[in-house]
Amino acid sequence: MSEAPASIDPSDWVCPLPLRETARVVLGHGGGGVLSEELIENLFLPAFGGRAGPARDSAVLQTGAGRIALTTDSYVVQPLFFPGGNIGDLAVNGTINDLACSGARPIGITAGFILEEGLELDVLGAIATTMGAAAAAAGVPIVTGDTKVVGRGGADQLFVNTAGVGVVPPGVEIGPERVRPGDVVIVSGALGEHGVAIMSVREGIDFGTEVRTDSAPLHRLVESMLAAGGPGVHALRDPTRGGLVASVVEIARAAAVGVELDEAAIPVPEAVASACSFLGLDPLQVANEGKMVAFVAAEAAEAVLAAMRARAEGAEAAVIGRVVAEHPGMAVTRTPFGTTRVVERELGEQLPRIC
């Protein structure tokens, strides 16, 4: 009988692990174990430009003294990919723009993923890579996140939840309560492109020309507007769901003022107008993801408009209306025929799941 070794070094033990190569998300990817770790380290971190570090439940961001803006949003758009973008860069840009509407300088974004079992990892990787590239281009890092996997049928491939944190500079006061009669209404560019881009892919409709999403981060545009107009910039709104109409009606009601829009001055691309006519939609209620509506004091409007047009995001900026004391809480448009019509929000959404 042979003698047992005097000592055994556990580091010499080798236990082969089963091969975990898979092209699709499995439930184990959301279990918090090795598969979860591999998904984070091998897919998300490279996509977001990060690297593994101490495990934490939150990110710590260094800021100076001042006010913090915080926003959260969820993205459930279908299809996941559409002309000009996908759910990933849409989530980044949408979160940044929500912060920008408060005049905040974004400093960090979180990314939470709800993945359906069976989702192709190539699809997830493409979305994560686009998301990371969008964050890098905007200069706003994705600093922490979470992943959950649900069984087949528990989600429509992929949902993204985000939160965004920003710092509001001293002296910046933006909100609907500051809107007053005499203010000028400015839009940063052509409307309706995102909603029509989604519809063209979802319904397989060829409008004769490709309409691409307008998804873009607008925080740098807002910085330029504030630098030019200062306290004259009273309120900002990104006209996403419900489009321009929802934005101006919400501001009118919150500020107890009237808004008059000049329909002929509102920039709507011909392809969008044609598509909306074909589908029976109002282009002023179609979603946008890279446009800003600004309510600006009349004395600051010229400087703000020039600052907007000096940037690519605002090159097509236009004055589209004014704030009045009459009909408080209501928005109307002056048509090219000289008539006036009341504009009101839809009961639901013209185009469901556009973000």
From TrEMBL:
Residues 180-327 form the PurM-like C-terminal domain. InterPro entries: HypE, PurM-like_C_dom, PurM-like_C_sf, PurM-like_N, PurM-like_N_sf. GO terms for biological process: protein maturation. Gene3D superfamilies: PurM-like C-terminal domain, PurM-like, N-terminal domain. Residues 57-168 form the PurM-like N-terminal domain. Coiled coil: none annotated. It comes from the Bacteria. It holds the Pfam family AIRS_C. SUPFAM superfamilies: PurM C-terminal domain-like, PurM N-terminal domain-like. Belongs to the HypE family. This is Hydrogenase.
